[in-house]
Amino acid sequence: MFECISLRLVLSERSLQENTEVNLILTDNLDKELHMPLRDSKGRYVKSTTAASAAKPTKAKAKTVKPTPTPAPVAVVTPPKKNYIGISRDHSGSMSSIAGAAARDYNNNITALREASAAEKQDTIVSVVKCGVNHAPGGVERETTLSTIARLQPLAEGRYEARGSYTPLFDSVGELIEQFEKVPDANDPDVSFVIMVITDGYNNHTTRWSAAAIARKIKELQATDHWTFVFRVPTASYGSNPKRDLIALGIPADNILEWEQTTRGVEVASAATNVAIRSFMQSRTRGATSSKGFYTTDLSNVSKATVKAKLVDISSEVQFFTVDQTDQIKPFVEAKTGSKYVAGTAFYQLMKKEDEVQDYKQIALRDKKAGKVYSGTEARNILGLPHNGTVKIAPGNHAGYDIFIESTSVNRKLLPGTQVLYWKGAGLT
User: Fold this and answer.
1) Which residues, including other chains, have CB under 8 Å from residue 192's CB and lie 6 or more apart?
2) Three-class SS of residue 393?
3) Of 179, 90, 87, nearest in space to 131 by CA
4) Which residues contact 78 (CB under 8 A, 6 or more apart)?
5) CA dist., res. 405 & res. 402, Å (int)
6) Alpha-carbon torsion 105, 108, 113, 116, what sign?
7) Which positions ≥6 away from 119 have C-beta within 8 Å?
8) Domain spans of the chain?
9) 102, 160 contact by CB (below 8 A)
10) Which of 85, 179, 325, 355 has minimal Cβ neighbours within 10 Å of its Cβ?
């Protein structure tokens, strides 16, 4: 604006006509910038297309409202279930004759823990103590403390020393309890603790944990529903009954496995423990935090759809005979069928503990409600039984099924009130 006024002052009158054009141009430029009406040199308003267009109301452009982006879903990561496994191994002198088998047993159990943890995607921490070591204070020595199962190394058979003079069993259990009670997540509602004890004898020495003290502690911990205590002990003999004594301490009867102190006995007990480990880990996946039937078969969480999908329906091929009185399987079957008995065609009903079930024996399941009968190699997987070796099993929660096991004997003792499944075709396989 100041530049425009200065130009008007310096222009001479003789160039007024020309000034008008200059002034108009300058003013027009200035007015265009200020969006004002245009005037000539005499102050008269002149028509301007710019001013006219500026005076017209303009329609506001509609704003495009962009939709608010939906936030990406946040993945909820569920931490894996966590288990603390404590193992007490007997290294007293009485184990010397089966030390090699005991080392293999330990290695098999560790392998079962590792495989089951991986299969069920669980975090497993292991502590191991040696019970009955002369040079250790109180006879209990720590071998492994809170190691992840993936890093735990097998034990060489020649390194299983068994020279201890006594068996401080209760002190070894107390040592594992004390370790686990100090872990940071000891009170986590989804953490589970298992104490596994393997011995060929019984507690005969203690410096810290008396029978009364360990019994109180075990009962206290079991009451939380997060602690499981498992014992493998000798069968009763010469007035000694370790299982009875452990039950008196509060250990559930189905968490105690009796075994024979021979190489063969170790192998059978080891197989049973491996089966129990896998079953326990599967129950953890389903939400369990402890077990009172560690050494029993469990079908409580097996669906009918699984049985139908994995096994073969043999209902039309089998017959059932009820046992009215104690009898042997051969004469019983011959009397019922009128045919010569063929080993492998008769299956006994699982109603009591079986010390040895060989890997070649077939297993059948009967749906109690529908009456359908199923069999096949997958039956062992459903029950958690191994496909190799002999295993000791005990009836547990069979839910809606009856379990029948093939008999290859001619003098199998049949119990009154049970049934025999007869499958002629089984003897042809």
Assistant:
1) 81, 82, 83, 84, 226, 227, 228, 284, 289, 290
2) strand
3) 90
4) none
5) 10
6) negative
7) 278, 281
8) 2-51, 82-285, 304-428
9) yes
10) 325
Distance CA 48, CA 35 (A): 10
CB 50 within 8 A of CB 32: yes
Residue of 200, 201, 170, 182 whose CA lies nearest to 84:
182
Q: Which amino acid is at 203?
A: N
Q: Please write the tens of the pLDDT for every residue from 35-64.
A: 445 555 555 555 554 444 444 555 556 566
Stretch (H or E) spanning 391? strand 391-393
- Sheet with 227-234: list strands edge to edge: 140-148, 123-131, 82-90, 191-198, 227-234, 256-259
Residue with tokens 């003290």: 213
pTM (predicted TM-score)? 0.69
Per-residue pLDDT reduced to its tens digit, 202-227? 898 899 999 999 999 999 999 999 99
Is residue 252 within 8 A of residue 243, CB to CB? The reply is no
Identity of the residue numbered 211: A
Query: Which residue type, as a one-letter code, is found at position 17?
Result: Q
User: Where does 48-181 have alpha helices with state H?
Assistant: 49-55, 99-119, 169-181
3-state secondary structure of 136: coil
Residue 419 tokens, joined:
């049934």
Look up the CATH architecture of domain 82-285.
3-Layer(aba) Sandwich (3.40)
